[in-house]
Design a protein that fits this description.
Elements (H helix, E strand, L loop, with lengths): L2 H4 L3 H6 L1 H13 L6 E5 L4 E3 L2 E3 L4 E4 L1 H5 L42 H18 E5 L19 E5 L6 H6 L3
Antiparallel strand pairs: 1-4, 2-3, 5-6
This protein binds protoporphyrin IX containing FE.
Protoporphyrin IX containing FE binds next to strand 1 and helix 5.
Length: about 170
């Protein structure tokens, strides 16, 4: 499926498997929610030798899980192949949690992925994206908000029509 064609329908979105892998790897290397501070243990338990007591506040860090060398080989390397259909089953439960996990995980995750896929496809097809001179090319860090990336986004050959964005459904 060409990206140009991918803009057209919901069916196309579900076929854009490699773009899925790219987005998953972006969320692994730089999770938009790097720290989940909202959990409290409702019972005492032993977590890999650490004693958690009922009532303890527990911080969960997607960023730490996503960069653990226990799970990921060369975690600082951007590699969408980690999420290829024949490898995704190897990822242990809890190792990849950009939307948290369990009954209180993110209810917007599917919506968010569909919107992102559509947005990125339109961006790549219609715009040239370049890093500004002097920009340090950092893909990793605790938060995108503190990233030093600076880019220039310009319309390709003045071919972008504003009504194009208004007319297409996602
Ligand atoms: C990149 C986009 C997003 C990321 C990374 C994300 C991530 C998360 C995470 C990590 C949680 C769990 C927080 C916790 O355990 O305290 C969460 C919860 C939640 N998210 Fe998202 N989210 C995203 C987009 C969205 C969107 C688009 C919506 C709504 C349309 C949404 C609605 C919610 C709601 C309502 C909860 C609370 C669920 C509950 O407590 O049962 N999220 N999200």
């Amino acid at each position: 499926m060409k990206l140009e064609e991918m803009q057209r329908s919901n069916e196309d979105l579900s076929e854009s498997a490699y773009l899925d892998q790219v987005i998953k790897e972006c969320f692994r290397i730089n999770p938009p929610v790097p720290l989940i501070p909202t959990r409290q243990a409702n019972a005492s338990f032993d977590f890999h030798g650490v004693q958690i007591k009922a009532g303890d506040k527990v911080l969960i860090s997607p960023w730490v899980n996503h960069h653990s060398t226990k799970t990921w080989s060369q975690p600082e390397i951007f590699d969408p192949e980690r999420f290829a259909p024949d490898r995704i089953q190897e990822i242990p439960k809890g190792a990849y949690i950009p939307f948290s996990l369990g009954p209180r995980d993110c209810i917007g995750k599917n919506y968010c992925l569909a919107v992102l896929k559509s947005f990125i496809a339109k961006l790549i097809v219609n715009y040239d994206i370049t890093l500004n001179a002097g920009t340090k090319q950092t893909l990793t860090g605790p938060s995108l908000a503190t990233s030093s990336m600076s880019m220039r986004i310009s319309a390709k050959n003045n071919t972008v029509k504003h009504e194009h964005f208004k007319a297409n459904r996602i």
